[in-house]
Amino acid sequence: MIRKLCAVSAASLLSFSVLAADSYTIDSHHTFPSFEISHLGFSTQRGRFNETSGKVTLDAAAGKGSIDISVNTASISTGLAELEEHLRGKDFFDSAQYPAMTFKSDKLSFQGEKLVGADGILTLHGASKPVHLNVERFYCGMNAIRLKYTCGADAVGTIKRSEFGIDKYVPAVGDEVKVFIQVEAVKD
């Protein structure tokens, strides 16, 4: 009987690490992926996406987790309606054919219990490529307004849009795009 009890206890402890990962849902009201791109060398143009969804799992103590984010490409916002329509069209995002871009990662980097990076696959315009994101700010705690445990981060990376088949006006309009993901996620 004591052997059985010890075996059950050991099995419970071994399964604890699987159960220790916390699951979070992206807060679409506080998550706005954005970008910067050179416009003819004269200025830096910016835009953001207003519709993001997804899930994050974190086990900071074990240094593990995953990210699965989907961004509605038609939700692009630049402050200029005519430009937004052009960016939704076939020359750029082709939102009718490719309504979502996704980032999926199961390789997160931690320093202690602080998330500092994510390596994953970005799928955009029908192409999937590996992308590294540096996490410049990471914080988890009780959200004083929602009264729910929340994690937030600012992630930054750079991609070449031509690698995703979006090469209209390259090199006049920059090929290199700086990507920012300001994200908040609420614990399930």
From TrEMBL:
Tell me where on the tree of life, at the top rank, the source sits.
Answer: Bacteria
This protein is called: Lipid/polyisoprenoid-binding YceI-like domain-containing protein
The record's section on InterPro entries has: Lipid/polyisoprenoid-bd_YceI, TTHA0802/YceI-like_sf
Entry keyword set: Signal
Residues spanning the signal sequence: 1-20
Organism (species): Methylomonas denitrificans
One Pfam family here: YceI
Taking every annotated instance into account, which residue ranges of this chain make up the domain Lipid/polyisoprenoid-binding YceI-like?
23-186
